[in-house]
Amino acid sequence: MTNNEKRKTPDANVDPVTLQGGVASISPSTFYYGSQGQGQQPPLPPNRPAVAALGSSTTGHYTIQTSEKSPFREPELVPDDSDQLPALDDYQADQDRRPFEYTTPPRETWEPADEGPWPSHSEQYYGSTSSNPFAQTDRWIASGPAPSWGAYDNSWAAGSARRSVPIDGRNETEEMRWWDVQVRGVYARPGHGILPPVLADRLHNPEHTLFSISVQPPDLKPTLPPTPTHSQPAHQAPLYAPSPLNYYPAAEEVRTAVPHPSAYYCRKHNGWVLLVWKSSSVNPPLSRSFNGTLPDHSHRRMTNSCIGDGEQPLGPANVTHHFHAYERAVDARRLTHPFNASEWENEERSKLRNRRVTLRGDDPTPAATVLEQVPADDTRMDTEQEESEGELLDLYVCCQCSFYVIASDVIPGVIPVKLLEDLVKNKMENPPLDRNGELAALITLETILTIIENRVWKGETRQLPVSRKTFQTKLGWNTTLARIFESLGFETRQLVGPVPDVALSPPDIDPTTPAGKLARSKLLRGWVELSAWVADYSKRFAPALRTHVNPHKLWVKIDSAREEYQHAIGAHPDQIARGQLPQILNDYDKIDDAVTNLGLTKTTYSPDLLAFAYFAQARCNPAHTIEYFTSFYTVCQMVTTMTDEPSQTLQSFVFDERERGRFTREDFREAPTVLGFGFHGTLGVEYDDDVPDEFVENAWREAVRRAWREGGDGQHLTMANDAFRRMAEMRGSEALWKKWEQAKDGGMTPERAYSTLEVPAEIDDGMLITIFSMRVEDQPNQVDKMREAISVIAEMRDSERLRKFLETGSDPGETVPTARQDWPRGLNQLGNTCYLNSLLQYFYTIKDLRDAIAPLLNSSGKTMDEEKLTDDDLKRHRVGGRLVTRKEILRSKKFVSELAELFWHLEHADIASVTPTIELAKLALVTSKDEEDDIEQTATDSSNDTDATLVEDAPPRVGPVTGSPVGSPGASSSSVLGKRSRDKEIGSRMSIDSFTDKDNYVIISKSPDAGPSGLGGGSGGDGGATQDVEMKEGEAPAQSGAKPPLPPRKTTESVMMFGRQHDVSECMDNCVFQIETALLKFDGLDESEDGKSSVVKRLFYGTSRQRLVAPTSESARTLSTHETENVFSILPVSVSDEGYDLYDGLNSYFHSTAQLDSDTVSMEITLVDLPPVLQIQLQRVQWDRETGQSWKSQAFVKFGETICMDRFLDSANPDKRARSKTILSELTKCRDRIHLLTTGQHAPFTSALSNTHDVLKNLHETMHLPELDSQLLSDLIAERDYLQDELELLRASAASMKQELEDIWKEEHEAVYELTSVFIHRGSTPQWGHYFFYSRHLPENPDSWFKYNDSEVGVVPKDEVLADTTGSTANPYMLVFVRKGSDMISTVKRFDPMSLEDA
């Protein structure tokens, strides 16, 4: 007989059955009993071994075997209050326990016989083969163990010798080109997946037990209450008698108190979970709102199931299922047995929704009004969706077969679980004298069940006073009990009488009225749930309840469903063994992320299952192949290195995958370093996604050439090729990958190349081409091999001549890299000098500056003695607000002479790029003060300095210098990426009028103790600024302490290469200082002090007026205004994180506040005189006071081709300025609030609130925190929504005020400037990176831009220059504008040979 037949044929001597609808309901406790009624050991379930692996997907089991008898008592299995699993190795069942049977079909397939929409009682719990509607086309998963792991020995690719595991659906082309978007688009894989053990944990909390519930209609008869006597007081009589017409629930109504045939009860939630699983050739009923894509159905329907005996006749194609999750994908109303929430459930949800949108009523701001409206719209949308769709359930689909699983979230029960837990806890902690706490709690729960049964089946409608002795003895009375009865539909009423009392009024459950029908279904549901709770409670505390004399009869039976759904989905221990992971790794946290990423659990690990999980993930989500191989390799490495017996299977898998070109994330991080990227690399450039493919290819070719030159065993060549391939794949670059593929197929080395062509390595290019042509004529069948050989030689030599020959087939002769005559020339690097190259190219584009420097070519030979400068001559001239020394003048003339020579080469050179001299670079990068410090910190050159200059060369002053121009190194000690600090400036000076220098900035020193850079001392700062290019290896740290002074020594190039290195701003200060010093005139013709006689000051310097408004008395009723005028050459703009434009940054500079003593004063700056060349610095380096570290802001600052400075002029319209100031004040407050909510340690707060809600919710589900309730969780979500709406309102208000501000000045166009130059810093940190430079092609083609990237110069569209750099590390850090209409910029100045012919 089959198992189904056995279940349908009751034994003659079974316990009495309860007839319901003509079908016998057999008690599970007597199912396997013999004819004599003696207990016999039940048979094992089908195909189950006698001893099976124990544990679930989250627990493990292992046995310590020993031949010696332990002196200690053997451990015993004792019940506790946690969920219990049925034992797998002992099937001696109790009389009240039914052994688990695998052949029980999921209840989603139960079909009614003739009893309405629900199945009959016997079919519901023991199955019926005839009623399965999917018997022909859809087959439920049969029971049976999974095939043995040893049986899996087939290979995934025909003819492959690799070790493999059964897995279907792989494609070699797709796996090898996982990085190719087009290839991935052809196959449209479903994405990340999980294995059955993980699914089992996802279906419901693995710490909880789900129970299948069977309900039997109670055999209860109504009992009429005694009629009150005449002597009974009136106030004690019932308010109304039992209902004359009782509608007792029918068997069908009782069974449908369970929410759904496929609903499972969870005691720890006091709720339900819908679980439906099946194999079907038809896709599940998807919701209308689902817009995802399921795995290929045509492939899935070919296999019924990946597990089970007979499921795959030709052998197992897959080790197990591979599921893919689709949240809220299935409409519960469209299931075979539709799930519809009851009316009372919908009412509860509506109340919860209304409570969620309730806002604080004490906030009269407009934000609160908006906040009240938004949730209302959301609520209406949710309601409309609920009307069109039912409950949305999660779907898990196996991508390789027709099996899928549908699961719901927890469907809350009638009584909140926290109330039940509080009730039980209170009774356990405060039991009566005659019983223990466990029994007291049970009696209380049973009493509540009795009250419900009396109302439903006995028609009891009388009120129940809570003060009666019996009630108080069994129940007591408190707020928790009141809320429990309230949730069941009972009402508390005040009884009127001599002694006031409270009574429970039963709900009206008349099914003929809508309200009664609603209360009836709710009360029945609550009765089922409470009965299930009591049944589980009685089992968990059975030893403590032995003294219970008269237990309440339960009409609800519970059976653990864990093994049922585990076996159905393929997660049962009989199908996937547990405990194979070495014990040392079970507690090793570093393995957790790797295992989770593969869709596996640690307890279900096995070498084959790990390999299957990896291959399945790579198959279904090829774009993340490297992440999956990294996880796979991590687990394999840990198992291999941390255990005594490394797994040969895993080592084979790793070796095979490495052979296929797989690499880890760590391998990829090392790849750029192999090709020379990084601060210490040969390229000196940081690698990121913005680096062009051509640059990567050139870096690879250079690395290959280096490997060829070094020779050796070829390891460096292999590393370079592997690194290039990895970078090509991670970038998804088809072009780079093809380059690698062409190179790897040949395997030609320079030695083989020379041997192939039979030539010596010393042969020149011309002779090599000649011999190559001869060899090809003699051996035409070897032409491909010979071309490859000469190609390798061309790359090794970096020979443009050989490359041209290979391209054209003819010898081009001696070639020089050509460049267009009308294009600017690039500058070759001398090391990490990309920032110097950008600056020199910028200087060359400024026509007046270029013309002023050109005549000084070869002028450095003129000595100081020839000029016969006296001390009075030196005292008459100041640069940067200070006197200069003879040595500085001589040094400056050398610098300008070298610069003039470079400008000559930029004008006349035919090659594409020229190389600055080492002397020029040294003079530009190293200040005279740096040279002095390099010799001796306190040394002074007395032979060149007068008494006056000795005073001026004293240690740097802390305060700013009046009139100090930024062009002088002493006046701007800022990093160009740095941030200024007005607080230090103002606080350091006693006199308001002396606070003049607006352009001094905070210097971020490498040393934590370094302070701001000195001002006015020497020809540079103190060298303590944060460098965009870090110090090189071997750099000697600064010495301190009282050591004997070193004798003077000659300064060499080592100062530049190993000394202090500066960024563009400091380099610019030093260069401009030397240009201005070299152009000084000592002939008595330059006596003006207005600063405009110098070409440097005429070009770059303007005048600003600063106003400080401070209180004059303690009452602060009167204010005093202090004004002063300063010179400037750079306007700083602080870069924010919240999408500002250039005007916003300038507004924050011209309108701000400052601290004066203990007062906050208003500071306003206006422009009195604007320079022809306007330089605006974007301060990207920010200082984190908490971490003590500097960081680079990557925020995008919007700017355009023009800027109007009218609003900042001192002569601007006063009314417009006043209006602007008012708007700007409100705009600043608004943006400060946005900044507070979106940035900082705990911001953004909306995300923080969401994360807090999720964490608390998970903690509550697992730990049942008593102080945590649903109200707190709702408040967190409400607060998040409140802040989100406030942010939207603030952003809208900020945009409106910003537009209003722009409208005020839209007609003002007197001071218009045009953008001409943009400096770019590419790098994620301010410590190092790469610099390049854009220059507008003026005056010939203003819509075209040149990009100067060291030696490479090319034309780019203006869209690239003005592009939004959000998400990129390449950002502008300095913008240069020139006054519109001025003829200041001549980007391209090239020598025209035709001009000589015309002359």
Q: Could you provide a short overview of the structure?
A:
The protein is an alpha+beta fold and 1399 residues long.
Structure, explained:
Helix 9 crosses helix 44 (1270-1305), helix 25 crosses helix 27 (783-797) and helix 42 packs antiparallel against helix 44 (1270-1305). The relative contact order is 0.06. The chain contains 46 helices and 33 strands. The termini are far apart. Strand 1 and strand 2 form a beta hairpin. The model is unreliable at 1-162, 226-245, 356-381 and 938-1061 (pLDDT under 50). Strands 3, 4, 5, 6, 7, 8, 9 and 13 form an 8-stranded antiparallel β-sheet that branches. Strands 22, 25, 28, 29, 30, 31, 32 and 33 form an 8-stranded mixed β-sheet that branches. 37% of the residues lie in helices and 13% in strands. The chain is an alpha+beta fold and 1399 residues long. Residues 26-35, 55-69, 121-131 have a biased composition (Polar residues). Residues 938-949, 959-978 have a biased composition (Low complexity). Residues 1013-1024 have a biased composition (Gly residues).
